[in-house]
Structures are given as C-alpha cells and as structure tokens.
Amino acid sequence: MISTGSIAEIQALISKFKSEGKKIGFVPTMGALHDGHLSLVATAKEKVDIVVCSIYVNPTQFNNQDDLKQYPRNIEADKGLLAENGCDVLFLPSDEVMYAGRNTIKFEFGDLDKVMEGKFRPGHFSGVALIVSKFFNIVLPDYGFFGQKDLQQLTIIKKLVEELFFNLEIITVPIKREPHGLAMSSRNERLSKEDREKAKIFSIALTEAKSILMEKQSSEAAKSKVESLFANHKAELEYFEIVSDKDLLTKTENYLAPDTVLCIAGFMGNVRLIDNMYLSGV
Ligand code: PAF
C-alpha cells in the first residue's frame, strides 16, 4: 500500500493508473476503522483495479467542536487494517493540504439538508459536500463507495454528483451490524460496555417499527412503539422518521414501496447514534 499526504503525489499515481487503463474506486473515511469500513473496501476491491482510501477527520463537517476533538483517531491501527484488506493507495492529507486557510464555499441542498441530521447538525452536509468534492476532484475515481448507514449523506452525495456532473458512479454498501444488531460506527468506541449493549435498542426499535408498518398499521403506531422502547431503555430519541430515500421527505402512504426507509437518531449516554432500515430488505 502506498501512503501519502500529498495531492501532487496522488494525482501522479492516478494518472499513471489511468494511462494503464485501470479503474479506480474511492473509499473516503474519517478513520477509526471497523468492519463497516472494511466492507466498503471489500466491495471496492471486487469492482475495480485500484482501491484508493482516504483518512481525514474533516473539520468543516463538525458543528460541535467537542465532537471534533473527541472523534476517535487510530491512525497506525487503521493503516495496518487497510494494508491487510487490499487498499492500494492511502491518502492521508493534513488540514493545511485540504484547506490551507480556505473555507469559504458553502453548499445548499434545498429540503435534503434541512431534515433529520440537517436539522440537528447545521452546516454538516455543506462540510461533507465540500470535502467530498475536493476528494473527487483529486482522486478522479470511476466509483465512490459509501455506506448506507449515513443514508442522508448518501442521498446528498448522489445529488452532488448529479448536479456537478462528477464523472463517477456512487455505490451503496449495506450496513454492517454487531451480532446484537447495533450498526457499526466509529462512535461506538465511545460507548461504555454497558451502553454498547443497551444501544441495540436502535436496531430493535427499527425492526419493531418495520413490522408494524408491514402489518399495515399506522405510522403513529410505529412511532409510539419506538418512543416507548427508547423510554424503557433510558435512551434519548432525537427523531424517528419514515421517509423516501429519493427526497428524504416524510412518507404518509405507500410504505411498502422500495424507497421507504426508517431513520432514527438519538443518544445512548452522551454518544449520538444514527441508524436506518429499509422497509423492504435490510
Ligand atoms: O462518512 C464519512 O466518514 C464522512 O462524512 C466522509 C464521507 C468521509 C467525508 O468526510
């Protein structure tokens, strides 16, 4: 695995691979890698010749400075995992390289960044879109691999690619779960052992809400089930939404259509977690 923090070096490598007719897959990460990230790398490995990963904790997508400070960083272990799992090129830029004091461009996505995460994390998706655009322009991948766990991010990145004519295809990789159901996330590292066990309530609540809707009961019934499960497990619910993955707007009918996805966010202890589940499939 070649590892570099230099844009010029990455660009030179990419042009060499492209001149050899190789297809490039890109897996952006913020590090603290877990099996969810490794499944992105494995999916990329199957589809392309060269897998480029990045590790960069992007400051512009954090609206809370404490969250940025506390974000887990594990760089040596991460490098080992990526090398063992087939990453060919690792891009590890510094803040100076990515921003050099520049942070003036803002993105707006209409309704897409006003709901759910957008409501609770103002400016977050503008920061994500900015860094992902920079990465796409540097790496020029044929495919970008993103996890379904960050469903709203995925919808927004698809929009970004479409509107800015990025010449690549976004591939969605399904959520990886711990054996008791908790969606894998770097933030899980911040949960105490006890809270990590209790955090299974997020996926249990989604599964229960899903079966209520599949039995053609109302969205109110699904919502009140989620609320009571959270209350019983002393978890704090921020939102539970039934949306279309196309526009992220609340659905009020036709729940059994393939675009329906249930999204949830809340706190277990002082750690904020999100999860989602399609009504059809996982
Ligand atoms: O999903 C993430 O880890 C980040 O939002 C991303 C896409 C790497 C951009 O910083």
What brief labels describe this structure?
11 helices, 282 residues, ATP binding, three-stranded antiparallel β-sheet, Rossmann fold, six-stranded parallel β-sheet, Pantoate--beta-alanine Ligase, Chain: A,domain 2, Pantothenate synthetase, single chain, cytoplasm, alpha/beta, binds pantoate
Q: Could you write a compact summary of the structure shown?
A:
By secondary structure, this protein is an alpha/beta fold.
Strand content: 15-25%
Order of helices and strands: EHEHEHHEHHHEHEHHHEEE
From the coordinates shown, what is the CATH architecture of the largest domain?
Answer: 3-Layer(aba) Sandwich
Helix share of residues?
A: 40-55%
Head-to-tail CA distance between termini: 33 Å
CATH superfamily of the largest domain: HUPs
| Overall tally of domains | 2
> How many beta-strand segments?
9
Quick one: CATH class of the largest domain? Answer: Alpha Beta
Strand order of the largest sheet: 1-4-3-2-5-6
* Principal-axis shape: globular
C-alpha-based Rg, rounded: 19 Å
Biggest sheet features: 6 strands, parallel
Listed once per kind, the bound small molecules are:
pantoate
Unreliable stretches: none
